[in-house]
Specification:
mainly beta; 15% helix; four-stranded antiparallel sheet; Methylamine Dehydrogenase, Chain H; 25 strands
């Protein structure tokens, strides 16, 4: 069996492992040092081979993980292995991409890692080739800073959100947006694709989360419950649930089919900047401005939702029985 096939099978098995408090995932941390230029965002390719960082000086830097530590001089950082750090200085340690004229606020890799998107305060989105190390396209459409950009799970299409109160759907081969999704009353701070690519969720400074139909550009759900700016979003792999984090440190789990909040996840005391589900969907990771990363067991909340659905079904059956069966019997007795 070819080594590539074995690697794919092993990766698939690893993604199916059910994680919990008793079976936590293996974790690898990369630490940025000398990030005095103002690191605003970071992204990791799906295979973990590339790491990108967007900076306030309008630079975009990409590190190849297979080369980290090779350029370090003997004797440097002896106390801690050099491959644990992503230095922002030194020759040959990263690939530098220049093109934006303002701070970079978001970066995202395509599913295969061959392309990289970045968004900036210069109101543009740029597409970069990680193979050619060059800028391919500059997308112009937003009128104000673009806070977030995300590739779709299948690639080719991507979504962006901006200070102009809109989110937009783009295609790599067109310089103009395919859809403009307007409805939020303030900045659209974050955007996230649904697993089936037919829907896009957006979080806003108007304290709401909206779910949009990609085909029509219409809003199909409005999630209300946050009391501050919604800064981060994550979709469960099965497409049933969504998590949203806000400026106060609150995280809410939503049932997409009903639009209801299943349960709030309380623990952070500052801005929740990022959220991510594990591959099999049993854990949720959150990173916040309180200098902590937390892992949440979301299966408990989902089980509670299933129990509630079962109870509702039982109550509906009892109501039907009392109203139509017993009611009908009573009418027959009177006759």
């Amino acid at each position: 069996m070819p080594m590539e096939v074995e690697k794919e099978i092993l990766e698939d098995l690893r993604n199916r492992v059910q994680l919990s408090s008793l079976a936590l995932p293996s974790i690898c941390f990369y630490t940025f040092i000398n990030a005095h230029n103002g690191l605003n965002c970071s992204a990791i390719s799906q295979d973990g081979s590339l790491v990108a960082g967007g900076f306030s000086d309008s630079s975009l830097k990409v590190w190849d993980m297979s080369k980290i530590g090779q350029s370090a001089k003997p004797g440097e950082n002896d106390s801690i292995p050099s491959e644990h750090f992503l230095g922002t200085e030194g020759e040959g340690s990263f690939t530098l991409f220049h093109g934006h004229s303002g701070p970079i606020y978001s970066a995202t890799f395509s599913p295969l890692g061959d392309f990289l998107l970045s968004s900036s305060s210069d109101s543009t989105i740029r597409l970069w080739s990680t193979n050619l190390n060059a800028n391919l396209v500059c997308y112009k459409g937003h009128n104000y800073p673009v806070w977030d950009v995300q590739f779709s799970p299948v690639g080719h299409y991507f979504a962006s959100s901006s200070h102009d109160r809109t989110a937009r759907i783009w295609s790599m081969d067109r310089i103009q947006p395919l859809r403009i999704m307007a409805g939020h009353l303030s900045d659209v701070d974050c955007v996230q694709w649904h697993a089936n690519c037919n829907y896009v969720a957006t979080g806003s400074s108007d304290k709401t989360v909206r779910l949009w139909d990609v085909q029509s550009g219409e809003c199909v759900r409005i999630f209300i419950g946050h009391r501050s700016t919604v800064l981060s979003l994550a979709m469960s792999p099965d497409g049933r649930f969504m998590a949203s984090g806000d400026e106060d440190g609150n995280i809410m789990m939503w049932d997409l089919s009903s639009g209801r909040c299943i349960s709030p996840l309380m623990g952070h005391n500052s801005c929740v900047w990022t959220l991510a589900f594990s591959r099999e969907g049993s854990l949720l990771a959150s990173g916040a401005a309180d200098c902590t990363v937390k892992l949440w067991d979301v299966t408990t909340s989902m089980k509670g939702q299933k129990i509630e659905e079962s109870l509702n079904a039982v109550n509906l059956t009892l109501t039907f029985y009392k109203k139509f069966v017993l009611g009908g019997m009573g009418q027959n007795l009177h006759r």
